[in-house]
Amino acid sequence: MGKPLQYLAIAGALIVGLGVAALYVLPRNEYTGLLQPEDADAVAHGKVIYDETCAACHGANLEGEADWQTPKADGLMPAPPHDVSGHTWHHSSQLLFDMTKYGVAEAANLENYQSAMPAYEGVLTDDEIIAVLSFIKASWPEDVRARHDALDAATN
């Protein structure tokens, strides 16, 4: 290979390397999170799954169980609401996904924590979990969704 071709090969490798590095270093203009609350198909699919799988505990209208902040007689916490009156939007999308897939104790690294919330690994696919969480997020007002997006951006 002649000198001009060597220089071109080196220059090309440098350009590719700088481009890849820029993906990690330069700020992005728009955060794209794990959840898809603007995707009407994902939200509709998530609602169907939520109604079948989650509503019995978390409520048909995302309202959760009564007195959800007070342990029940068995010591377990009631199912919290997923609307803005609850704390779902206080958690990152990744943590919500992990709690749904693996269970609260494993996702939150709380070895001895007991929860009535089952793990859905092997029950729902990752895409189905994302659809359910997208449905929940789509129900929140725009300002709460924006705050949740900011939380996701800060934790990713």
Automatic annotation (TrEMBL):
Keyword annotations from UniProtKB, A to Z: Electron transport, Heme, Iron, Membrane, Metal-binding, Respiratory chain, Transmembrane, Transmembrane helix, Transport
Cofactor(s) listed: heme c
Sample GO molecular function, one term: iron ion binding
Segments traversing the membrane: 6-26
Pfam assignment, any one: Cytochrom_C
Top-level taxon in the UniProt lineage: Bacteria
All residue ranges annotated as the Cytochrome c domain in the record: 41-140
Protein name: Putative bifunctional cbb3-type cytochrome c oxidase subunit II/cytochrome c
Provenance organism: Roseibium alexandrii
